Amino acid sequence: xxxNASYPKTKFAENLTRRSGILExxxxxxxxxxxxxxxxxxxxxxxPGHIPxxxxxxxxxxxxxLATPDVFDAVLGDYDQPxxxxxxxxxxxxxxxxxxxxxxxxxxxxxxxGGQTAFFCLLNRFGGRMPDEKSRRRILLPLVxxxxxxxxQSVGADFFDSxxxxxxxxxxxxxxxxxxxEKLTVADDIGAIAVSRPTNPSSNVLTDEEIQRLSELARExxxxxxxxxAYGAPFPGVIFEPVTPIWDEHIVLTLSLSKLGLxxxxxxxxxxREDIAAEVSAxxxxxxxxNNNVGxxxxxxxxxxxxxxxxxxxxxxxxYAEKSTSARALIEQHLxxxxxxxxxxxxxxxxxxxxxxxxxxxxxxxxxxxxDRHTLIVPGEYFFFGLADSEGxxxxxxxxxxxxxxxxxxxxxLERGIAILGEEVAKAYSER
Length: 432
Ligand code: PLP
What we know:
Blueprint: H1 11-17, H2 21-34, E1 41-42, H3 52-66, H4 69-77, H5 86-100, E2 109-112, H6 115-126, E3 128-129, E4 136-141, E5 160-162, E6 166-171, E7 174-178, E8 190-196, H7 208-221, E9 225-228, E10 251-256, E11 268-271, H8 274-288, H9 294-305, H10 307-334, E12 341-344, E13 351-356, H11 363-372, E14 375-376, E15 378-379, E16 402-406, H12 411-429
Parallel strand pairs: 1-14, 4-5, 4-8, 7-12, 8-9, 9-10
Antiparallel strand pairs: 2-11, 3-4, 6-7, 10-11, 12-13, 13-16, 15-16
The structure holds pyridoxal-5'-phosphate (PLP).
Residues 46, 114-116, 147, 149, 196, 200, 228, 230, 256, 258, 263, 268 line the site of pyridoxal-5'-phosphate (PLP).
């Protein structure tokens, strides 16, 4: 057999190595960051913005760690426990007890190598083939578009049961998604309900009432409601709608330090029933022995003092709210007024979600044309995974008419990028 013959792929390898949307996105982002940083107008990836006040804070925290050699040496030189650092888990539990009266202890907290890994463990914990090898459980996504990063996480058979939202037209140019509760049935093979809040890509924030209804539905059906709080309240605080953070025994909440400006530390936080938190830790032990503990070490005092709330409310939220407003102004300025473009109401996260109704080309084609002009966005198709044929599947025109545009980069990048977007969209519509 020649050395370069391909080895047969397992189902696991097939799922995790196909050219997934997330891989393409991270590749484009990585390439642009390393080779074409000056050339590429990056409105594609989900990298957080560099907020000067937060960067200063992280540098100070690093300096404090360096100044305490015993702590610093332990952080670098010792494996953490698979569940996470005891001090950090206590700090997380204490913070939520004090600020929100949640009845949790450190045993309800499991740390992972980022929220992405938390979701990999959780989705495969509740979705997939059952031990009898005959039946399977699926994950209900009550509203797509949903986060591209979940799409290929299944290690076995595809497991999503996704639903189309209803669309509210707020004004001529602004729309908002809602869960279509009229049609939201929970089949018997559903193992969990999952949502991101705010949602990447649309920035939609499910209202407290929607979350309450989902929570009741999950409780009735005896399945967990998994809420991905990568951007939300109380931290990192990239959320522009007033919402109440919620936890209950049947809710699994995931948080992350990434969007506070620490994506490099890979720190995810799972708050769940004790047995679920213990299972996540067991998975960490198998997959990676332990977690990166640098982020935990530098963030623990901020949770202990409650300072993290002030950072979220006074620094992180205003930074992104202002970026969102000025990106929206650039859209108004550069997208042709005679074309039917719309923007999802900006409610959080880092993105504007644009809808070009009746666009004559797919948004993948629009992406390619923009990339040829050194401008990166993310085509919307990737975010509509798991839609059954009864939900319009691939044929739902809306799923080919949206793009995600990240506004974390500089004003100059956005000005130039959105101007090019306006030109390419005008060209595409003229091909009708
Ligand atoms: N969930 C959502 C909705 C995200 O947008 C992201 C990252 O962009 C993640 C989870 C994962 O983030 P991390 O693994 O850095 O915590």
